[in-house]
Design brief:
This protein is an alpha+beta fold and 147 residues long. It has one domain: Orthogonal Bundle (Tetracycline Repressor, domain 2). The chain is built from 5 helices and 4 strands. The strands form 2 sheets. Strands 1-4 form a two-stranded parallel sheet. The protein has a two-stranded antiparallel ribbon with strand order 2-3. It is globular, with a radius of gyration of 15 Å.
Amino acid sequence: MKYPKVIDCFDGNYGFLSNFYETPVTYGGVMYRNSEAAYQAQKDPTRQMEFVDLPANKAKRLGRKVDPVADWDDIKYNHMLQIVRRKFHQNPRLAEKLIQTGEAEIIEGNRWNDTYWGVCEGKGQNKLGNILMQIRNELKQGGNSLC
């Protein structure tokens, strides 16, 4: 099987890489419709139930309106790592698709200037892409730890 060298767009065959992909994710004992809703809910845990049934676009919109917990900038990466890890461990079909990306570099390319989670116009930290590649490596090694 031939793998791409770079995946830099989460649509088409690679739409499953996006946090907007509709697949249930249970995090913190709560099941969300998608990983974006799970992530946005962590900004203010007292409001998490408002996010449970939201499609990703509405979850992101609501997430912009909540006041995040005081240490959000310190904990957001770990929440994303754990949520995305659960997405693939709880959905074996998606885990297999992630493994099938081979050794491709995964870049969360975007046009909305998200240079923390992704890359826009060649600039960015690509934290989400790095998380996906880390989880892919864990899955390849047979790792099933959710820690």
